Give the backbone structure.
Amino acid sequence: MELRRMNRQHPPTNPAQSQPVTPDALRNQYESGATVDELVSASGLSYGMVLNRLHDAGTVMRTSWQTRRMRQDSQARRRLAARLRTLYEQQGATLAELAAVAGESRRGARRLLLEAGGTVRTPQQTLRMRAAARAAERQKLALSLRARYEEGATVPDLAKACNYSVATVYRLLHQASTRMRPQHRHGPTRPEGKRP
């Protein structure tokens, strides 16, 4: 690794904090994935001085390949955390379900969720969220059945196509405020007030 000439005229400081940059602080940043060049830019120290302080702190130096791999792993973790947050917030997944998706423990899944900016729900909030999602899905199905019924499908046809009982299809059609045909008629529903 090429060393650059050290600047020994003034004790360098971190411009953001106006305090001397300690070897341990540099080591922590380096071990979190920062490169030496990035530490030079952030700290205002010379390249050689950053290296010396890292060595003073007992830092184990990486190769550029190891840095790339470390960052790729970090990016993969962020992507996984974002996916878990989406599952948790938009689909009502539980921490146990997130753990199964991530191949982690519940505690590990919770940590990833928090890293992505998520907020952990109570079990009661999860139950309410899932109940609301089921109700919305049921309403969507009811409206779909109504549209097919009004196009001429019969209740037994709909029950068979959806693998539901006839009674369930009737309940869903009523939920969608469907105007039912007389049982002997199987054609499309005609608007009220019009006769053939």
In short: Residues 123-150 form the longest helix (28 residues).
